[in-house]
Design goal:
16 helices, globular, Diaminopimelate Epimerase, Chain A, domain 1, inorganic pyrophosphatase (n-terminal core), 2 domains, alpha/beta, 5-stranded mixed beta sheet, 5-stranded parallel beta sheet
């Protein structure tokens, strides 16, 4: 049994690479999206193809997913094959617009289906209707890895497969996907490949953290995940992408040192914001969820802080940054709660939402904040566990 449309997507991308068609890669700026695009890009190049553009949206400024701003910036490249990874499953209007502009669209995503599937040319998402593959817990990079394997077939060397596996393992761990079934194999094989990696970015990290590697391979890999998730955009590329694709050991060492310092600073900022949220909810223990936001909240920290609070409070957490044009937020919940399903019940109040059951995001007008909180409270009072 195969994941629906995966072989079809692989065949189309392979065809585009061999025919030297124009190909654009577009993905989320987190480690799952970064890993997905690197895997797909390297597979395309192995087939002799080229990538015309590799693009990541800035969530806070441009919004999440395939954005109108991105399409405006990419339209001069149409016609082209636009491969969207780790996002896109909720971009109904944007996919229509992309096709009008002359793009052929392939979506490789793993997020929850929001009632219907976009009218892309090919959609790979194990959660879509009609997909009978038994395991649904892939990260997008796991799907990208399987797509790359199908693209290359017998041309996939053991060394290249291992280099893909290390990326798929990093992205799967970073996205906190279930460590079972297919993912367990990806993580175990990817971890072995990780510690033998040829990539200067990984070598530089292992060199710097040699003692930690000796003590615990798992902790070392998780620390690398934290390093690669640093929000450090330069020339439109996230820090993790630049570190994993650099060919220079000197450049890699400099980035590892820089990102390590920024990670320490970020960790302290997360601690401070989590402390602020705990103060705010101290007298709200009876509420079925945590719903807090402010103009002073740093959007980039919300997911990490929400994860901390939900683990401490054992209830869903919705945090948001309030801006003039509207609020942008992140939701986290412990096992048993479905944040996407909750927002589905409140979708009339939202401009955009989506993600996984335990980790998702949303955007709405400020005037709807109180109504959204009330709607979520009603939902979680009656839908406590799934």
């Amino acid at each position: 049994m195969e994941i629906k449309n995966l072989t079809k997507a692989a065949a189309r991308i392979r065809q585009a690479a061999v025919r030297l068609e124009r190909i654009i890669l577009y993905g989320d700026a987190d480690l799952d999206g970064i890993s997905s695009l690197i895997i797909l890009g390297e597979a395309i190049k192995s087939l002799g193809g080229t990538v015309a553009a590799t693009t990541f949206p800035n969530r806070e400024h441009d919004g999440y997913g395939l954005t109108p701003k991105a399409l405006a910036e990419l339209k001069h490249l149409a016609p082209a094959l636009l491969i969207v990874a780790d996002l896109g499953i909720g971009n109904f209007e944007e996919v229509k617009e992309a096709k009008k502009l002359g793009f052929e669209v392939i979506i490789i995503d793993h997020h929850e289906i929001l009632g219907r599937v976009p009218v892309a040319d090919i959609v790979v998402d194990p959660k879509q209707p009609g997909d009978e593959y038994p395991f649904k817990g892939f990260a997008a990079c796991g799907l990208a890895f399987l797509t790359a394997k199908a693209m290359l077939g017998s041309k996939l060397s053991p060394a290249l497969e291992r280099s893909f596996l290390e990326l798929a393992a990093l992205g799967t761990v970073a996205d906190m996907m279930p460590r079972q079934q297919d993912n367990l194999l990806i993580i175990e094989q990817g971890m072995d490949a990780f510690f033998e990696s040829w990539r200067p970015g990984i070598r530089a990290f292992l060199e710097r953290e040699e003692e930690l590697v000796r003590e615990s391979r798992q902790v070392a890999m998780e620390q690398m995940v934290g390093l690669l998730n640093v929000r450090d955009m330069a020339d439109g590329y996230p820090g993790g992408f630049r570190l994993l694709t650099t060919q220079s050991m000197d450049e890699a060492r400099a980035m590892v040192e820089d990102f390590s310092q920024k990670t320490k600073i970020r960790r302290e900022r997360v601690r401070q914001l989590a402390q602020e949220v705990r103060k705010r909810i101290a007298l709200k223990k009876e509420e079925p969820l945590v719903f807090e936001g402010d103009e002073s909240f740093d959007y980039e920290l919300l997911g990490s802080v929400a994860s901390i609070i939900t683990n401490q409070e054992a209830k869903p957490v919705f945090l948001f940054k309030k801006r003039k044009e509207g609020s942008l937020g992140s939701a986290r919940a412990s096992s048993g709660f479905n944040t996407v399903q909750a927002m589905e019940q409140c979708k009339d109040l939202l401009e955009r939402y989506g993600g996984h059951s335990p980790a998702s995001g949303f955007r709405l007008k400020n005037e709807n904040l109180e109504k959204f909180n009330a709607c979520l409270a009603d939902y979680f009072k009656t839908h406590v566990r799934i």
